[in-house]
DNA sequence: CGGTAGGGATAGGGTTCT
DNA sequence: TAGAACCCTATCCCTACC
């Protein structure tokens, strides 16, 4: 066709984000039909929207889909790539950090620091909300279940998640409505 | 990592070319899966095929990717690098030459000839077919659109392209099938 | 048939190696 | 230094499942 790879413009991306905030994720056709966005997104399909949103989400969390796939999960599938989540005192998320411990044996990589800062509970919470993709956002319990299902967690993860949800809501990163959490516009907008 | 740059053997290159002729460009996985080639190309990935084909194509056209990048494009992005295509009577492509005119004002370069022979319509047509990468080749209209999009053209470019397509098809450089054009084996083989 | 989710392939820019 | 080989990831495509 004419366009070998049609890169997304900032305007289109903004419109998509606004559309998701207004209609929720998974409502790609609805967003496209909304007169508020359909002029900007004229040249995009519902599938394009879905793909772009996936890309935005995953990039914000992990840097790329590939990294997300590598980072996410692991415990059950392959012991050599397992990632263990631990939280340490005194971090930037209210006294908690999440670290990824490199697998015990494994790679012929050059010497790395024993622990590399990898991601925080906050990021995992955002990931949970993104991946659970409930129409109006998951509730706290679902978020916790998601995290416990996908990561090896420490015993007091519940307390940690609860306090982080409160903090993120106060900070404006999350929006809480009827016990459900969704990601705020400003966060996805790249704030 | 493991692989210290695995150079392409002539056999592999031949298999790749045959695969492209059979399945078209952009069908890298398909080519890999074809029992006719998958023994020779066993150690290559679909991405490897794509990269190698790019090297082959771009080398045939411009000498290298770097040169191609310098030569290609200009009009829309930056006026100072704009390339103007004109055709002159009495050339080697049926009475037509394509020239690249240096930008009007611009560079502090040493004095250049007013017009430097740049490339011919034929090469641009080959480039168009290569870059448009339609499964069975683009039709004439698409080729014309590509050229008009990427170059500043003279008014009668349509007529020129049409006649060149006819010529190149007769000459065996292109293969025409159902109004679509693809590059012939012999051309890519370096003929 | 129309829509979405998800896996997977491709395109094209960038990087490394020789 | 250039060019071949290779890497990264945004975009696009395909299929399964409603």
TrEMBL record, chains A, B:
GO terms for molecular function: double-stranded telomeric DNA binding; protein homodimerization activity. Residues 117-185 form the H15 domain. Residues 1-61 form the HTH myb-type domain. It is found in: Chromosome; Nucleus, Nucleolus. Keywords: Chromosome, Coiled coil, DNA-binding, Nucleus, Transcription, Transcription regulation. Signal peptide: none annotated. Transmembrane segments: none annotated. Residues 5-57 form the Myb-like domain. GO terms for cellular component: chromatin; nucleolus. This is MYB transcription factor. It comes from Cardamine amara subsp. amara. The chain holds residues 1 to 191 of 290 of the full protein.
